[in-house]
Amino acid sequence: MADKARGPRREPIQRTGEPDAAADIGVEARIAAGILLNAALERRNGLDEAMASAELKSLPGPDRAFARAVAMAALRRLGEIDAILNRRLQKSPPEAVRTILRVSLAQTLVLDTPAFAAVSTAVKLAERDAKTRPYKALVNAVLRGIEREGPGLTTAESNLPDWIAARWKQTYGEAALAAIALAARDEPPTDLSLKPAEDANALAEALDGQVLTGGTVRAGVRGDVAAWPGYETGGWWVQDAAAAVPARLLAAKSGETVLDMCAAPGGKTLQLAATGATVTALDRSEPRLRRLRQNLDRTGLSAEIVVTPGEDWEDERTFDAVLLDAPCTATGTLRRNPEVLRATKPADVAKLADVQHRLLDAAAERVAPGGRLVFCVCSLEREEGETQIIAFLRRNPAFRTAPADPAAVGAPAEALTPEGWLRILPSMWAETGGVDGFFAARLERI
Ligand SMILES: C[S@@+](CC[C@H](N)C(=O)[O-])C[C@H]1O[C@@H](n2cnc3c(N)ncnc32)[C@H](O)[C@@H]1O
């Protein structure tokens, strides 16, 4: 596969992190990294499933964390890593050999692992398996060649699957595509949403971070969030700055009734419950609702929980405000979940748009006269965002757009569309570390 030329922007690959003591971590962790990488490339949720497998769980914690960091780095830079490899490979090696090479390059090019450790463990990995043993010398030569002569220039856009890059170029233009690709190269910072009574400035200071417009605290440190101040006492929860926007847009108030229609694992339910509104959190997935319950317990917040598909809910109630955070391709979360780009197929966009259409109609029925409806998706695909709302407003003349005020809801100013909706791109707020991609529209029943 040749390095894709989608424009002139070619730059040296940048290192972004350094897992602890990578040089001391051994072959087993690298094998695990390969397992995680391939699971993520093979199937949706593959990485999470593989992380939960007995094989991964049997590793010591630091090895497991290292394996995940390597797999994530490889996924974020897959196009660049393959381009570098392809310049040195005369023909494509067996997949197992490519995995070893990818895992090794993710360490040296992205994670700052010392080359001696990344290369020698790659050679040991090749040696261990009869299928890869004949390629031991090749693995050594390719990796040492790259170390000696440098990786060469690569493009951030090459990390995006072709069909996705083509779509985003058409929807957002070439410059935005390049900016999104750049934003997706690096591990994003961790953002926290706080309960209203918490001191955002003190938390930001403790985490060497900053308070963003809207009140999100962006941590300046990484690591185990459960060890950060305020976790045990439930003062905050992890939630990307963009993911915190839709619940603010709904502007729930104490004393109102609110339905969160696709609620689990509950980041937005927590925001809504923290306003003092009476919240009903509905989701079709019991396992995901279990996580929502744990989140409510930890934060001391409360909500009624309903397990059912939103379209089939046999309940007559209507609500002052309804939030529909619909299931979607999640392409906007590519910085946090680079695997979504590999797992999503073109046909998924239309399939999920159908689900969103049905859920939107079901959500609309739950809105009391004069009430509000916020629809949002963490997708960059127009069919899951703007197109849904245009079609919904045509089918439902009883609703109209209530334009968003980006400053009031902690969204980037440039996210506001002419229609009054919010289209947040991962390239926005780049100077403070970027955001997830989101679409959100607030509607009101006339
Ligand atoms: C984008 S996630 C929601 C994230 C959540 N709002 C949060 O902030 O943590 C979409 C959710 O929709 C749920 N879901 C999918 N189809 C559904 C349906 N027909 N009815 C209700 N929930 C559904 C999924 O189980 C998933 O939890």
Give structural notes.
By secondary structure, the protein is α/β, with parallel strands linked by helices. It folds into 3 domains: 22-158, N-utilizing Substance Protein B Homolog, Chain A; 189-239; 240-445, Vaccinia Virus protein VP39 (Rossmann fold). Helices cover 43% and strands 13% of the residues. The chain is built from 18 helices and 12 strands. Strands 5, 6, 7, 8, 9, 10, 11 and 12 form an 8-stranded mixed β-sheet that branches. Helix 14 links the parallel strand 6 and strand 7. Helix 1 packs across helix 4 and helix 5 (78-88) crosses helix 6. It binds S-adenosylmethionine (SAM). S-adenosylmethionine (SAM) binds at residues 262-268, 283-285, 288, 309-311, 325, 327, 359.
Average pLDDT = 94
Low-confidence stretches: 1-9, 14-21
Report the bound ligands by name, code or SMILES: S-adenosylmethionine
Calculate the terminal CA-CA distance, rounded to whole Å.
55 Å
Rough outline: globular
| Rg, alpha carbons | 23 Å
Q: Helix segment count?
A: 18
The appropriate CATH architecture of the largest domain is: 3-Layer(aba) Sandwich
**Total strands:** 12
Query: How many separate domains?
Result: 3
Based on helices, strands and strand pairing, what is the structural class? alpha/beta
Task: Tell me what portion of residues adopts beta-strand conformation.
Answer: 5-15%
CATH topology of the largest domain: Rossmann fold
Helix content: 40-55%
Instruction: Please name the fourth-level CATH homologous superfamily of the largest domain.
Output: Vaccinia Virus protein VP39
Instruction: Output the CATH class name of the largest domain.
Output: Alpha Beta
The arrangement of helices and strands along the chain is HHHHHHHHHHEHEEEHEHEHEEHHEHEHEE
Q: What about the largest sheet?
A: 8 strands, mixed
